[in-house]
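call fold(seq) -> C-alpha coordinates
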Amino acid sequence: MGQPPTTRRYELLCAIMLGFGHLSIMVGYDSGSFVLESVIHSINERNPDVISKYAGYYGQAVMYILYMIGCMFSPSILNEVGSKWILVASAICFASFPLGFFFVNSNYYYFSQMLLGFGYALYYQGNGGYMTSHSTRKTIESNVNIAWSIGCVCLIISSGIFAGVTSMAHAPSPNSNFFFFSRIGKLLFGVFFGASVLGIVNFLAAPGKDVTDCIQETKKKGTFLGSFKQTCTALVDRSMLELFFLFSVLGTSSSFWLSIFPTAMNFTVANFEMTYLCAIYPLGIGIGEIFMALFITQMSRRHKDFCFQPAMILGTVFSILAFFMVHVSTPYDSPHKPTREDALWFGHSYFFIFLIGVTLGIGDCCLNSCRSVICALAMPDRRAQAFSISKLYQALGSCFLFFLSPIIPLYVYTIGISVHLIIAMIFFFITARRTQNMEKKNDENEKNEEI
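ret:
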Protein backbone atom coordinates (compact mmCIF):
# COMPACT_ATOMS: atom_id res chain seq x y z
CA MET A 1 0.00 0.00 0.00
CA GLY A 2 1.46 3.39 -1.04
CA GLN A 3 2.10 6.32 1.25
CA PRO A 4 -0.69 8.93 1.62
CA PRO A 5 -0.25 12.06 -0.53
CA THR A 6 1.53 14.98 1.07
CA THR A 7 -0.20 18.32 1.62
CA ARG A 8 0.67 21.89 0.72
CA ARG A 9 1.20 22.47 4.44
CA TYR A 10 3.93 19.82 4.41
CA GLU A 11 5.62 21.54 1.45
CA LEU A 12 5.54 24.85 3.30
CA LEU A 13 7.07 23.26 6.40
CA CYS A 14 9.94 21.89 4.29
CA ALA A 15 10.50 25.27 2.59
CA ILE A 16 10.43 27.08 5.94
CA MET A 17 12.93 24.70 7.55
CA LEU A 18 15.22 24.94 4.52
CA GLY A 19 15.05 28.73 4.77
CA PHE A 20 15.72 28.68 8.52
CA GLY A 21 18.75 26.43 7.98
CA HIS A 22 20.03 28.91 5.39
CA LEU A 23 19.47 31.72 7.87
CA SER A 24 21.41 29.90 10.60
CA ILE A 25 24.55 29.07 8.66
CA MET A 26 24.64 32.23 6.57
CA VAL A 27 24.23 34.67 9.46
CA GLY A 28 27.81 33.81 10.35
CA TYR A 29 29.31 33.61 6.88
CA ASP A 30 27.66 36.67 5.33
CA SER A 31 28.18 38.79 8.46
CA GLY A 32 31.80 37.68 8.72
CA SER A 33 32.37 38.59 5.08
CA PHE A 34 31.28 42.18 5.76
CA VAL A 35 34.15 42.71 8.22
CA LEU A 36 36.62 39.92 7.38
CA GLU A 37 39.25 41.95 5.52
CA SER A 38 39.04 44.72 8.14
CA VAL A 39 39.45 42.16 10.94
CA ILE A 40 42.44 40.55 9.23
CA HIS A 41 43.97 43.97 8.54
CA SER A 42 43.54 44.84 12.21
CA ILE A 43 45.19 41.61 13.42
CA ASN A 44 48.08 42.11 10.99
CA GLU A 45 48.57 45.68 12.21
CA ARG A 46 49.00 44.44 15.79
CA ASN A 47 50.89 41.21 14.99
CA PRO A 48 52.31 41.20 11.44
CA ASP A 49 53.75 37.68 11.85
CA VAL A 50 50.39 36.09 12.65
CA ILE A 51 48.65 36.55 9.31
CA SER A 52 48.98 38.48 6.02
CA LYS A 53 47.08 41.76 5.81
CA TYR A 54 45.38 40.61 2.58
CA ALA A 55 44.52 37.14 3.94
CA GLY A 56 40.86 38.16 3.98
CA TYR A 57 40.86 38.41 0.18
CA TYR A 58 43.25 35.51 -0.46
CA GLY A 59 41.48 33.23 2.03
CA GLN A 60 38.20 33.74 0.24
CA ALA A 61 39.92 33.04 -3.08
CA VAL A 62 41.16 29.72 -1.64
CA MET A 63 37.65 29.02 -0.39
CA TYR A 64 36.23 29.47 -3.88
CA ILE A 65 38.85 27.17 -5.41
CA LEU A 66 37.71 24.37 -3.08
CA TYR A 67 34.15 25.40 -3.80
CA MET A 68 34.73 24.77 -7.52
CA ILE A 69 36.37 21.40 -6.88
CA GLY A 70 33.54 20.44 -4.53
CA CYS A 71 30.95 21.33 -7.17
CA MET A 72 32.38 18.65 -9.46
CA PHE A 73 31.76 15.91 -6.88
CA SER A 74 28.72 17.18 -4.94
CA PRO A 75 26.11 15.69 -7.37
CA SER A 76 27.73 12.28 -6.88
CA ILE A 77 27.69 12.73 -3.09
CA LEU A 78 24.04 13.82 -3.25
CA ASN A 79 23.23 10.68 -5.23
CA GLU A 80 24.84 8.55 -2.51
CA VAL A 81 23.58 10.14 0.73
CA GLY A 82 20.53 12.28 -0.18
CA SER A 83 19.83 15.98 0.27
CA LYS A 84 19.08 16.00 4.01
CA TRP A 85 22.41 14.51 5.10
CA ILE A 86 24.41 16.58 2.66
CA LEU A 87 22.84 19.68 4.27
CA VAL A 88 23.89 18.46 7.73
CA ALA A 89 27.48 17.90 6.54
CA SER A 90 27.60 21.37 4.97
CA ALA A 91 26.45 23.03 8.21
CA ILE A 92 29.29 21.30 10.09
CA CYS A 93 31.79 22.74 7.57
CA PHE A 94 30.32 26.23 8.04
CA ALA A 95 30.70 25.94 11.82
CA SER A 96 34.46 25.33 11.48
CA PHE A 97 35.16 28.84 10.15
CA PRO A 98 34.10 31.17 13.02
CA LEU A 99 35.62 28.71 15.49
CA GLY A 100 39.10 29.63 14.21
CA PHE A 101 38.85 33.23 15.40
CA PHE A 102 39.16 32.17 19.02
CA PHE A 103 42.81 31.25 18.33
CA VAL A 104 43.91 33.13 15.21
CA ASN A 105 46.36 31.00 13.28
CA SER A 106 47.24 31.37 9.61
CA ASN A 107 47.32 27.62 8.94
CA TYR A 108 43.93 26.95 10.55
CA TYR A 109 42.48 30.03 8.87
CA TYR A 110 43.28 28.72 5.39
CA PHE A 111 42.27 25.17 6.37
CA SER A 112 38.89 26.41 7.61
CA GLN A 113 38.47 28.37 4.37
CA MET A 114 39.04 25.12 2.47
CA LEU A 115 36.43 23.34 4.61
CA LEU A 116 34.09 26.26 4.10
CA GLY A 117 34.51 26.04 0.33
CA PHE A 118 33.69 22.34 0.30
CA GLY A 119 30.77 22.98 2.66
CA TYR A 120 29.48 25.68 0.33
CA ALA A 121 29.43 23.19 -2.57
CA LEU A 122 27.63 20.62 -0.43
CA TYR A 123 25.11 23.14 0.89
CA TYR A 124 23.90 24.48 -2.42
CA GLN A 125 23.77 20.99 -3.91
CA GLY A 126 21.70 19.85 -0.94
CA ASN A 127 19.58 22.99 -1.11
CA GLY A 128 18.69 22.39 -4.75
CA GLY A 129 18.10 18.68 -4.19
CA TYR A 130 15.89 19.27 -1.15
CA MET A 131 13.89 21.96 -2.93
CA THR A 132 13.18 19.84 -6.03
CA SER A 133 12.24 16.77 -3.96
CA HIS A 134 9.90 18.86 -1.79
CA SER A 135 8.21 20.92 -4.54
CA THR A 136 6.02 20.29 -7.59
CA ARG A 137 6.23 22.16 -10.91
CA LYS A 138 3.30 24.26 -9.74
CA THR A 139 4.88 25.26 -6.43
CA ILE A 140 8.63 25.45 -7.20
CA GLU A 141 8.74 29.22 -7.84
CA SER A 142 6.73 29.98 -4.70
CA ASN A 143 8.73 27.59 -2.50
CA VAL A 144 12.08 28.92 -3.74
CA ASN A 145 11.14 32.45 -2.74
CA ILE A 146 9.59 31.47 0.60
CA ALA A 147 12.82 29.72 1.57
CA TRP A 148 14.89 32.60 0.20
CA SER A 149 12.92 35.27 2.09
CA ILE A 150 13.33 33.40 5.38
CA GLY A 151 17.02 32.81 4.70
CA CYS A 152 17.61 36.49 4.05
CA VAL A 153 16.40 37.38 7.53
CA CYS A 154 20.02 36.51 8.40
CA LEU A 155 21.00 39.92 7.03
CA ILE A 156 18.61 41.72 9.37
CA ILE A 157 19.89 39.63 12.28
CA SER A 158 23.44 40.52 11.22
CA SER A 159 22.48 44.17 11.32
CA GLY A 160 21.23 43.79 14.89
CA ILE A 161 24.38 41.90 15.92
CA PHE A 162 26.65 44.56 14.43
CA ALA A 163 24.66 47.35 16.06
CA GLY A 164 24.90 45.64 19.45
CA VAL A 165 28.60 44.90 19.14
CA THR A 166 29.34 48.44 17.94
CA SER A 167 27.53 49.96 20.92
CA MET A 168 29.44 47.66 23.32
CA ALA A 169 32.86 48.26 21.78
CA HIS A 170 35.14 51.18 22.54
CA ALA A 171 35.67 53.62 19.67
CA PRO A 172 38.75 52.76 17.62
CA SER A 173 41.71 55.05 17.14
CA PRO A 174 41.22 57.84 14.58
CA ASN A 175 44.44 56.67 12.91
CA SER A 176 43.07 53.22 12.17
CA ASN A 177 39.47 52.81 11.07
CA PHE A 178 39.45 49.02 11.40
CA PHE A 179 37.31 46.52 13.28
CA PHE A 180 39.79 45.76 16.07
CA PHE A 181 39.80 42.14 17.11
CA SER A 182 39.22 42.20 20.86
CA ARG A 183 37.02 40.29 23.26
CA ILE A 184 34.05 41.93 21.56
CA GLY A 185 35.24 40.57 18.21
CA LYS A 186 35.56 37.09 19.67
CA LEU A 187 32.05 37.41 21.08
CA LEU A 188 30.84 38.28 17.59
CA PHE A 189 32.39 35.18 16.03
CA GLY A 190 31.11 33.14 18.98
CA VAL A 191 27.57 34.16 18.04
CA PHE A 192 28.30 33.12 14.45
CA PHE A 193 29.51 29.71 15.64
CA GLY A 194 26.40 29.22 17.76
CA ALA A 195 24.17 30.07 14.80
CA SER A 196 25.97 27.46 12.66
CA VAL A 197 25.38 24.82 15.36
CA LEU A 198 21.68 25.77 15.31
CA GLY A 199 21.74 25.15 11.56
CA ILE A 200 23.10 21.63 12.12
CA VAL A 201 20.24 20.87 14.53
CA ASN A 202 17.67 22.33 12.12
CA PHE A 203 18.79 20.17 9.19
CA LEU A 204 18.82 17.08 11.41
CA ALA A 205 15.18 17.79 12.31
CA ALA A 206 14.05 18.64 8.74
CA PRO A 207 11.48 16.25 7.15
CA GLY A 208 13.03 13.76 4.74
CA LYS A 209 9.98 12.36 2.93
CA ASP A 210 9.52 13.58 -0.67
CA VAL A 211 6.30 15.40 -1.57
CA THR A 212 3.75 13.82 -3.88
CA ASP A 213 4.48 14.48 -7.59
CA CYS A 214 7.77 16.17 -6.72
CA ILE A 215 10.05 17.46 -9.47
CA GLN A 216 12.93 15.15 -8.53
CA GLU A 217 12.66 12.06 -6.32
CA THR A 218 15.27 11.29 -3.66
CA LYS A 219 16.41 8.03 -5.17
CA LYS A 220 19.87 6.72 -5.97
CA LYS A 221 20.44 6.56 -9.71
CA GLY A 222 23.55 4.87 -11.03
CA THR A 223 27.00 4.94 -9.44
CA PHE A 224 29.24 7.61 -7.94
CA LEU A 225 31.47 7.53 -11.03
CA GLY A 226 28.50 7.59 -13.39
CA SER A 227 27.11 10.69 -11.69
CA PHE A 228 30.54 12.35 -11.92
CA LYS A 229 30.66 11.64 -15.67
CA GLN A 230 27.23 13.25 -16.03
CA THR A 231 28.55 16.36 -14.28
CA CYS A 232 31.53 16.54 -16.65
CA THR A 233 29.34 16.25 -19.77
CA ALA A 234 26.84 18.78 -18.40
CA LEU A 235 29.66 21.34 -18.08
CA VAL A 236 29.62 21.82 -21.86
CA ASP A 237 25.87 21.45 -22.34
CA ARG A 238 24.41 24.23 -24.47
CA SER A 239 22.13 25.53 -21.71
CA MET A 240 24.93 25.59 -19.13
CA LEU A 241 27.27 27.44 -21.48
CA GLU A 242 24.59 30.05 -22.20
CA LEU A 243 23.91 30.42 -18.49
CA PHE A 244 27.63 30.73 -17.69
CA PHE A 245 27.30 34.51 -17.80
CA LEU A 246 24.47 34.54 -15.25
CA PHE A 247 26.20 32.10 -12.92
CA SER A 248 29.57 33.87 -13.08
CA VAL A 249 28.09 37.35 -12.59
CA LEU A 250 26.36 36.05 -9.46
CA GLY A 251 29.85 35.18 -8.23
CA THR A 252 31.51 38.48 -9.06
CA SER A 253 28.62 40.62 -7.83
CA SER A 254 28.02 38.73 -4.57
CA SER A 255 31.74 38.86 -3.75
CA PHE A 256 31.76 42.58 -4.41
CA TRP A 257 28.74 43.25 -2.21
CA LEU A 258 29.75 40.93 0.63
CA SER A 259 33.45 41.78 0.85
CA ILE A 260 34.83 44.45 -1.49
CA PHE A 261 32.26 47.18 -0.87
CA PRO A 262 32.05 46.73 2.94
CA THR A 263 35.86 46.94 3.04
CA ALA A 264 35.70 50.10 0.92
CA MET A 265 33.25 51.64 3.40
CA ASN A 266 35.49 50.76 6.35
CA PHE A 267 38.62 52.12 4.62
CA THR A 268 37.03 55.47 3.71
CA VAL A 269 38.31 57.87 6.38
CA ALA A 270 35.31 60.19 5.87
CA ASN A 271 33.13 57.38 7.23
CA PHE A 272 34.98 57.16 10.54
CA GLU A 273 32.25 58.85 12.57
CA MET A 274 29.54 56.61 11.06
CA THR A 275 30.13 53.69 13.40
CA TYR A 276 26.88 51.92 12.50
CA LEU A 277 27.54 51.55 8.75
CA CYS A 278 28.20 47.81 9.14
CA ALA A 279 24.75 47.49 10.73
CA ILE A 280 22.82 49.73 8.33
CA TYR A 281 24.18 48.06 5.19
CA PRO A 282 23.02 44.44 5.83
CA LEU A 283 19.72 45.79 7.19
CA GLY A 284 19.06 47.42 3.82
CA ILE A 285 20.06 44.29 1.90
CA GLY A 286 17.87 42.09 4.08
CA ILE A 287 14.81 44.31 3.67
CA GLY A 288 15.32 44.44 -0.10
CA GLU A 289 15.78 40.66 -0.37
CA ILE A 290 12.75 39.80 1.78
CA PHE A 291 10.47 42.35 0.12
CA MET A 292 11.36 41.11 -3.35
CA ALA A 293 11.12 37.43 -2.42
CA LEU A 294 7.60 37.96 -1.07
CA PHE A 295 6.71 40.01 -4.16
CA ILE A 296 7.98 37.28 -6.52
CA THR A 297 6.11 34.64 -4.50
CA GLN A 298 2.82 36.48 -5.07
CA MET A 299 3.53 37.23 -8.73
CA SER A 300 4.52 33.62 -9.42
CA ARG A 301 1.13 32.46 -8.17
CA ARG A 302 -0.62 34.78 -10.61
CA HIS A 303 1.72 34.62 -13.60
CA LYS A 304 3.45 31.44 -14.72
CA ASP A 305 7.19 31.82 -15.44
CA PHE A 306 7.48 35.16 -13.65
CA CYS A 307 10.93 33.95 -12.52
CA PHE A 308 12.08 33.88 -16.13
CA GLN A 309 12.15 37.08 -18.22
CA PRO A 310 10.31 39.51 -15.86
CA ALA A 311 12.44 38.73 -12.80
CA MET A 312 15.64 38.79 -14.87
CA ILE A 313 14.89 42.27 -16.20
CA LEU A 314 14.14 43.56 -12.70
CA GLY A 315 17.29 41.94 -11.31
CA THR A 316 19.53 43.45 -13.98
CA VAL A 317 18.06 46.96 -13.70
CA PHE A 318 18.21 47.14 -9.89
CA SER A 319 21.70 45.60 -9.72
CA ILE A 320 23.13 48.09 -12.23
CA LEU A 321 21.42 50.93 -10.35
CA ALA A 322 23.13 49.77 -7.13
CA PHE A 323 26.54 49.69 -8.85
CA PHE A 324 25.93 53.22 -10.19
CA MET A 325 25.16 54.45 -6.66
CA VAL A 326 28.43 52.95 -5.40
CA HIS A 327 30.35 54.37 -8.36
CA VAL A 328 29.42 57.99 -7.63
CA SER A 329 29.72 57.84 -3.83
CA THR A 330 32.86 55.77 -3.06
CA PRO A 331 36.58 56.67 -3.50
CA TYR A 332 38.28 54.65 -6.25
CA ASP A 333 41.12 53.29 -4.05
CA SER A 334 39.04 52.47 -0.96
CA PRO A 335 39.00 48.64 -1.43
CA HIS A 336 42.79 48.51 -0.87
CA LYS A 337 43.78 50.90 1.91
CA PRO A 338 42.51 53.66 4.21
CA THR A 339 41.89 56.65 1.97
CA ARG A 340 41.05 60.34 2.24
CA GLU A 341 40.21 60.66 -1.48
CA ASP A 342 36.89 62.24 -2.45
CA ALA A 343 34.10 60.39 -4.23
CA LEU A 344 32.96 61.47 -7.72
CA TRP A 345 29.77 63.24 -6.63
CA PHE A 346 29.17 62.89 -2.87
CA GLY A 347 30.13 60.71 0.06
CA HIS A 348 28.28 58.13 2.13
CA SER A 349 25.53 58.72 4.64
CA TYR A 350 23.45 56.28 6.68
CA PHE A 351 20.41 56.81 4.47
CA PHE A 352 22.35 56.43 1.22
CA ILE A 353 24.06 53.22 2.37
CA PHE A 354 20.66 51.88 3.43
CA LEU A 355 19.29 52.79 -0.01
CA ILE A 356 22.18 51.00 -1.73
CA GLY A 357 21.47 47.94 0.41
CA VAL A 358 17.75 47.86 -0.43
CA THR A 359 18.42 48.32 -4.15
CA LEU A 360 21.06 45.60 -4.11
CA GLY A 361 18.78 43.24 -2.16
CA ILE A 362 15.98 43.61 -4.71
CA GLY A 363 18.31 42.93 -7.63
CA ASP A 364 20.11 40.02 -5.97
CA CYS A 365 16.86 38.29 -5.01
CA CYS A 366 15.61 38.45 -8.60
CA LEU A 367 18.84 37.05 -10.04
CA ASN A 368 19.03 34.20 -7.52
CA SER A 369 15.37 33.31 -8.10
CA CYS A 370 16.03 33.14 -11.85
CA ARG A 371 19.03 30.90 -11.26
CA SER A 372 17.18 28.50 -8.94
CA VAL A 373 14.18 28.08 -11.23
CA ILE A 374 16.12 27.73 -14.50
CA CYS A 375 18.39 25.09 -12.93
CA ALA A 376 15.32 23.11 -11.84
CA LEU A 377 13.73 23.19 -15.30
CA ALA A 378 16.33 23.63 -18.06
CA MET A 379 17.88 20.14 -17.74
CA PRO A 380 15.15 17.77 -16.47
CA ASP A 381 17.37 14.68 -16.70
CA ARG A 382 20.35 16.30 -14.93
CA ARG A 383 18.96 18.70 -12.34
CA ALA A 384 21.57 17.92 -9.67
CA GLN A 385 24.32 18.59 -12.21
CA ALA A 386 22.68 21.88 -13.25
CA PHE A 387 22.61 23.16 -9.66
CA SER A 388 26.21 22.07 -9.15
CA ILE A 389 27.51 23.67 -12.34
CA SER A 390 25.70 26.92 -11.54
CA LYS A 391 27.66 27.12 -8.31
CA LEU A 392 30.91 26.03 -9.96
CA TYR A 393 30.71 28.91 -12.44
CA GLN A 394 29.66 31.27 -9.64
CA ALA A 395 32.69 30.20 -7.60
CA LEU A 396 34.91 30.73 -10.65
CA GLY A 397 33.71 34.33 -10.90
CA SER A 398 34.29 34.92 -7.19
CA CYS A 399 37.73 33.31 -7.23
CA PHE A 400 38.80 35.45 -10.19
CA LEU A 401 37.59 38.58 -8.40
CA PHE A 402 39.31 37.88 -5.08
CA PHE A 403 42.70 37.03 -6.59
CA LEU A 404 42.68 40.38 -8.41
CA SER A 405 41.12 42.37 -5.56
CA PRO A 406 44.39 43.82 -4.19
CA ILE A 407 45.05 45.61 -7.52
CA ILE A 408 41.63 46.41 -9.04
CA PRO A 409 40.30 49.97 -8.46
CA LEU A 410 36.66 50.36 -7.51
CA TYR A 411 35.48 51.73 -10.85
CA VAL A 412 36.59 48.59 -12.72
CA TYR A 413 34.19 46.61 -10.53
CA THR A 414 31.22 48.92 -10.94
CA ILE A 415 31.50 49.29 -14.73
CA GLY A 416 32.74 45.77 -15.53
CA ILE A 417 30.12 43.89 -13.51
CA SER A 418 27.34 46.10 -14.92
CA VAL A 419 28.34 45.15 -18.48
CA HIS A 420 28.57 41.51 -17.36
CA LEU A 421 24.96 41.72 -16.09
CA ILE A 422 23.65 42.91 -19.45
CA ILE A 423 25.40 40.06 -21.28
CA ALA A 424 24.02 37.58 -18.72
CA MET A 425 20.47 38.85 -19.28
CA ILE A 426 20.69 38.39 -23.06
CA PHE A 427 21.90 34.79 -22.84
CA PHE A 428 19.43 33.98 -20.05
CA PHE A 429 16.56 35.03 -22.33
CA ILE A 430 17.75 32.55 -24.97
CA THR A 431 17.81 29.64 -22.52
CA ALA A 432 14.53 30.64 -20.85
CA ARG A 433 12.70 30.78 -24.18
CA ARG A 434 14.00 27.35 -25.19
CA THR A 435 13.01 25.91 -21.80
CA GLN A 436 9.50 27.33 -22.11
CA ASN A 437 9.13 25.83 -25.60
CA MET A 438 10.37 22.46 -24.30
CA GLU A 439 7.82 22.48 -21.48
CA LYS A 440 5.06 23.44 -23.90
CA LYS A 441 5.90 20.50 -26.17
CA ASN A 442 6.01 18.12 -23.21
CA ASP A 443 2.57 19.29 -22.06
CA GLU A 444 1.16 18.80 -25.56
CA ASN A 445 2.63 15.29 -25.76
CA GLU A 446 1.10 14.36 -22.40
CA LYS A 447 -2.32 15.60 -23.54
CA ASN A 448 -2.06 13.61 -26.78
CA GLU A 449 -1.17 10.46 -24.83
CA GLU A 450 -4.20 10.92 -22.59
CA ILE A 451 -6.44 11.23 -25.65
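The chain has 14 helices and no strands.
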